[in-house]
Amino acid sequence: MSDDQFTHLDSSGQAQMVDVTDKAVTQRVAVAQARVRMQPATLAMIQDQRHPKGDVLATARIAGIQAAKKTWDLIPLCHPLMLTKVTVNIEPEGDDALRIETLCKLSGTTGVEMEALTAASVAALTLYDMCKAVDRGMVIESVCLLEKQGGRSGHYQRVNEQEEK
Amino acid sequence: MSDDQFTHLDSSGQAQMVDVTDKAVTQRVAVAQARVRMQPATLAMIQDQRHPKGDVLATARIAGIQAAKKTWDLIPLCHPLMLTKVTVNIEPEGDDALRIETLCKLSGTTGVEMEALTAASVAALTLYDMCKAVDRGMVIESVCLLEKQGGRSGHYQRVNEQEEK
Amino acid sequence: MSDDQFTHLDSSGQAQMVDVTDKAVTQRVAVAQARVRMQPATLAMIQDQRHPKGDVLATARIAGIQAAKKTWDLIPLCHPLMLTKVTVNIEPEGDDALRIETLCKLSGTTGVEMEALTAASVAALTLYDMCKAVDRGMVIESVCLLEKQGGRSGHYQRVNEQEEK
Amino acid sequence: MSDDQFTHLDSSGQAQMVDVTDKAVTQRVAVAQARVRMQPATLAMIQDQRHPKGDVLATARIAGIQAAKKTWDLIPLCHPLMLTKVTVNIEPEGDDALRIETLCKLSGTTGVEMEALTAASVAALTLYDMCKAVDRGMVIESVCLLEKQGGRSGHYQRVNEQEEK
Amino acid sequence: MSDDQFTHLDSSGQAQMVDVTDKAVTQRVAVAQARVRMQPATLAMIQDQRHPKGDVLATARIAGIQAAKKTWDLIPLCHPLMLTKVTVNIEPEGDDALRIETLCKLSGTTGVEMEALTAASVAALTLYDMCKAVDRGMVIESVCLLEKQGGRSGHYQRVNEQEEK
Amino acid sequence: MSDDQFTHLDSSGQAQMVDVTDKAVTQRVAVAQARVRMQPATLAMIQDQRHPKGDVLATARIAGIQAAKKTWDLIPLCHPLMLTKVTVNIEPEGDDALRIETLCKLSGTTGVEMEALTAASVAALTLYDMCKAVDRGMVIESVCLLEKQGGRSGHYQRVNEQEEK
Question: What pTM does this model have?
Answer without folding.
Answer: 0.94
